[in-house]
Amino acid sequence: MQKFDAVVVGGGHNGLVHAAYLGKAGLKVALLERRPVVGGATITEEIYPGFHFLPGSYLISLLRPQVIRELELPKHGLEIIPLESTVAPLPDGNYFADWPDHDMTRQEIERFSRKDAEMYDEFNATMRRLIFGVKPILDMIPPDPTSLEPHDLAQMARVRGTLERLEKRDFHTLSRLMTMSAADFLDEWFETEPLKAIKSTSGIIGTFLGVRSPGTGYVLLHHYLGELNGVPRAWGFARGGTGGLSQAIARAAKAHGVEIFEDCPVEKILVENGRAVGVATQKGDEFRADRVISAAHAKVTFTHLVDRSHLPPEYLADIDRWNTRGPSCKVNLALDSLPDFPAIPEAKKALLRGSIEIAPSVDYLERAYDDAKYGGWAKRPFMDALIPSLLDPNLAPPGKHVMSLFVQYADYNLEGGWNEEKKSQFLETVIDTLCEHSPDLRNKILHKHIMTPVDLEKTFGLTGGHIFHGELTLPQLFFMRPSPQWANYRTPIQNLWMCGSSCHPGGCITGAPGRNAAMEVLDDVKETVTA
After folding, report:
1. Predicted TM-score (pTM) of this structure
2. How far apart are CA 195 and CA 186, in angstroms?
3. pLDDT tens digits, 47-79
């Protein structure tokens, strides 16, 4: 039996961030990861010799700049390569491109609609104001709005102060956007189908809703909240893949004395007299600690690792009803050479270094959702494709390439259940759809690999295969995440905390749940010492 100040359960990026902050503050910390490598879904794996795949997360934008700065991640090997563009090849042989540079995107829009090009200036300015108005909330500790405790009142005042900085028109826009669909919101601004489609994909990524479903407006805004080197809404790729990020955080944690135990699955969280006192592993070891912090999914934590008898019925009811049905698959391809997309002109082949969206229209995206929502999969899926080896050649052998495909929709609750045959069938559906835009692709495939929602659950502990640990819709945001009155990273069990994406502000590679929870744990440590 070993004794620590804190034990962190789960070595995904939030667990690593959390442990690093506690270690930096001088606490003796153990981090336990059930897989042979830390990172959770934020990993890079050499599934086939020489080809390094991204089986989970693949791009970075929402990673909090404080995390990068305070943990000195560049010193520990983090290098983020800016993503240069997003392009959607279109069925008529044309293409639509979105650039980080505002003027370049406006010129692109003007090829389709002068009216939309002029409207884009106001749209972009409005979204920037909303971003700067909402972004501070990512780093807040969600208050209990029914509480009169000084801490909660102070946090409520911070929220109000943040929102008061918005102009009235922007506050009204934000209020509507929280409950609107992404498609309806974009319909109010634009008429160009590819423009609306490529932007509305931000409202459905990771979400089992269609672009016309209420609530996807906020998901769109959530994906706008990122930045890269101070550039709002910019996206990037970590050298070495997303595993390069996780390893940088792990090195930072180790530099601050954190002990990381890989291949160390936790069997249960030990609770004595209403207090968490440590964990027991499947290998029979015990790690005792003053505080236990779970980075695991809320359902994993409270329906597998903790005996339900230790939790109040109303809390269990919130966890049981938590919406965590996933629609997403990850496909990785090892390619003999670079694929060709005929819709992209020879002079614009640099667009292959960015995201390639198979999203030609809003109707296309909605039909993909319609195919899947009753236990099926999209006959022609939406895809966000990336060729990481163009950004980091070390991910593939010389002259070869890897292609990462984020795919929707495929229901976790597939009718009849997922098996190897159905996995193969859907994989072929994905490749067939991609070949409509890149006819030579199939002949260049050396290896192919798919992660269904069930695989994401089994491999990474993502209950229901949901990449965000649960939907980012209004009933599961801010002080409701994962349960009202327990959104401040605490739980009904004393000395048991949460720091994963089941907590505010939710999914994506942000590090915010890990950092926010660490700030609360360290405050609790100070109060305990001075008491």
Report:
1. 0.96
2. 9
3. 999 999 999 999 999 999 999 999 999 999 999
